[in-house]
User: What shape does this take?
Amino acid sequence: MGIHWKDAQETILKELVSRQRVGLVTDMDGTISYITEKPEDAVVTPRNHELLQALNEKLTLVAIVSGRAVHSVTARMALPGVTYIGNHGLERCVNGQVKHNFDIDQYLPALAASVMELEEISLDGVQIEDKGVTVTLHYRQTENTEEVRDLLYPLVKKIASKEGLAFFEGRMIFELRPPVKADKGIAFENLVHEFSLDSVIYVGDDTTDIAALTTARQLREKKACYAVGVGVMSNDYPNELPKEADLLTSGVPDVENLFAWILENLDEG
Assistant: This one.
């Protein structure tokens, strides 16, 4: 069970910022931006944008790893030098160009077909988001989310199975992805090795971030990198989040406080 980050300033976090090559990897929605009813309405908070810009000038790596399409992330951050990874590690923005990290073109017809099938679900408040290499069904805006979840779960899973796609569930979403081994944990570990990081912090709030929090602990335990996982607590956080996280923050404003602490203590170093 994670502890609040303020209780780790003189221990875990002090160790983190004392290393030579330090990285920061963060989720977007619910972490550096507030969760919104419609995903297109989300914006990175001005304070987080300012802090990440300053941290990017001092750290070896600042990266955003999101379930969003990578162009959606870059449009909301627009900071040069930051590494952007979208669709849970399936794609990456390199010099303004979107690159697939896997050979997933063969699954694009199945994804397009699944979009058409999902759009046949006639239910007020349901939104289908076509993210190119993944498809997400949002039901946050429905009247009774628990009932809707139970109704939609078998329907969406059946579509995924029919089209040969992987099925995932997050906070008030279902997602269909190509059946390749890709998640935020794998993306996180690849960044650690790519940038030869001595220490790194990962910050995230959702079910899909748990893989990265688990990877952080594993990297630290095998002494590959001093990696620390931070869970962002909110009203509807996944039950596993505080169990897998090393440290905890209490919402988006507290993420800002954590980033400010890191920046200040890097300055002191």
In short: The first helix runs from residue 12 to 18. The radius of gyration is 18 Å. The CA atoms of residues 110 and 163 lie 5 Å apart. The mean pLDDT is 94.
